[in-house]
Amino acid sequence: MPSSEPTSHVRNLTGGTLLALAAAIVCLTVALLLHAKLNQQIDLQVLLLGGSGLALALVAALMSWRKARRLIRPISELIDSAERIGNGNYTHPLEVTGRHELAPLEEALEQMRQKLRQTTINTNYLSTVLNSMNDTVLVTSPDGEIRKINAAAERLLGYKEEELRGKMLSDLLLPGNPPEPHDRAPRTVDLQETVIRTASGQTIPVSISGSQIAAADPSFQGAIYVLRDITERKRAERRIRYLARFDSLTKLPNRMQFQHMLQQAIARARRADCLVALLYLDLDRFKEINDTFGHEAGDRTLEILSERLTRALPKEAVLGRLAGDEFAVFIEGIEPQEDERATTAALARIVLAEISKTFYVGQHELYLTASIGVAFCPRDADNVIDLIRHADAAMYHSKQSSGNTFAFYSPDMDAAAVERLMLKAKLRRALERDELVMLYQPKVDLRSGLVVGGEALLRWRLPGYGDISPSQFIPLAEETSLILSIGDWVMNRVCDDYKRWLKSLSNPGRISINLSLKQLKQSSFVTRCRAIFMQHELSPTSFELEITETTLMQNPKRTIKLLDELFAMGLTLSIDDFGTGYSSLSSLQQFPISTLKIDQSFVKGIVDDRDDATIVRTIIDMGKSMEMEVVAEGVETKSQLDYLKSHNCHYAQGRLFGDAMSADAFLAIMVAQSQGKVALASLFG
Ligand code: C2E
Ligand code: MG
Ligand code: MG
User: Fold this and answer.
1) Ligand 3 centroid to 454 CA: how many Å?
2) Using CB atoms within 10 A as the burial measure, which of 42, 372, 466, 548 is most buried?
3) pLDDT on residue 186
4) Whose alpha carbon is nearest atom 20 of ligand 1?
5) Domain range annotation of the chain
6) Taking the model in full, what pTM does it have?
7) SS (HEC) of 81-125
8) Among the atoms of ligand 1, which is closest to the Cα of residue 577?
């Protein structure tokens, strides 16, 4: 070992010198004696004396050499140990013998070794901990000069520690990102986001937090920063932000984003003194596409439509999807001197033309139309919410006037649209708040004048609004799946009431229940229906289901199958509002229908209107020829009754016999009748 060289040098030097010295003395003495003997200057005695002296001198020299050696060995061992420690090797303890003068020095050196060993263990431990961290750690001087980094930092930044030592932390940050290169006194950096540039030039978003190193020794002062790669989190955030602002199906701005963009456009228009035009668009009868061809086909249609409109509209127009089949377009920068109506009408025509082109979806060719409402900012409204509301009101106006058209907003359109929106919002809570009420309208046999049953008619008793007719809220409920819950509620309520009537009456007659198209479309309808009757332990033969003519003709094949199942269950089926649809009677024959209900609009005119009278008479005759029972709805006068009786109409309902009434009132009529008190005796003479 080269390190032990100087020590052995000292040892060899000391021992060698002593031996050489003794040998020199011996040689010198022998030479002197021989010289004197040869010259006859000394006799034998003297020679012997000289020899003894020489031996003594030799022994003395040897003894002193040995003593010197005993002293030098511990010194050289101490030197060895000190050199080992100096070289960072603290593992071997020093042997403290206590047998010589150097023992205190040995002890002091051993203590020093132990302290140094502990410090080294601590330092190594800290390094191991730092290097095991997933987070990037950078230690800087008070000026921000990098002093130490951990292994994670090397991995993230792509630099070795030696390469970064002496560089500034700010050199790693992308310009303009926090923390700003700090002054001499390092501050604590609260957790914030920044962007760093790696050795390969890649930029990585990181979170950074820093704190001051509190050390008394100025050479240890500075700051320690912890950086964490947040690339994944940023990506997720971007995705969430995208999903929150864009419709995932059509990739168009959603309602939130559209409103935000419109808001900005309105602000710009205000500054530039220009107009913003908003076109609110709702597809006509889009529900039918979903119901008939399935939601996938519906979705694909919306996608195609979005692509078409994006391509056809001018670049400056902004298109958004606000809800299911509701879209909106706005265009800004319309100059005050410009004919804004002409500009916008051209835009609306482009939209309608694109919608009217055939949609090829799977095997199907689909046709669509839309209703558009237009409102201008600031003329019609000066804020986003009102502008959308007014364009929406104009849209309803177009829809009511047959659809496939556009209309400009005018103040008188507003009330109806607002009311409709309000009702839709409140309807969701109607079930929870128990605001629905079931009423019953008696059905009378025109041959006997007896009440033979009734029609269950729903009311929405909305506080502050009175009773709302189902004609107003059933279409709203049909736009959502709310109609299904309402439908279930109706069936259960009718069964409950019927059950109660049975306690006072052996036969409360047959009760008819109105069904909406959406209810009939649910795949589980028959099963649910059967389950409800079973649950209430009631026979389906006590009930009748009313289905409108238009509902029946939606998807005849499927409907026949469905109605066959309901008929087999024992239910009576009737066609409601007959005469308002376009079905041919022969097409009706395929259904297991046993009752035709003549729509009240024809009944109204039977006395005064020859056409109405002819229609009603023909329906009665047709029904009879098909062995169907015929019911006339909305009978209000004695002359209407007489006309119906004279033409052998079987049954009738209407105010003349009793309006829709509570379950208790209906029960009272039926109980009285069962006791022989015929309420309508005067009408039937
Ligand atoms: P609908 O089945 O044709 O019901 C007859 C409507 O005529 C009822 O209106 C009834 O109150 C009304 N009416 C009865 N007598 C007269 C009269 O003498 N003159 C006049 N002008 N009208 C009379 P309502 O109760 O407003 O029901 C409207 C429609 O709502 C019903 O027409 C039916 O299609 C639907 N509907 C009623 N209840 C339900 C229900 O529980 N579920 C479903 N899905 N639809 C229902
Ligand atoms: Mg009805
Ligand atoms: Mg009806």
Assistant:
1) 13
2) 372
3) 47
4) 634
5) 11-128, 133-235, 246-410, 436-684
6) 0.49
7) HHHHHHCCCCCCCCCCCCCCCCHHHHHHHHHHHHHHHHHHHHHHH
8) 3
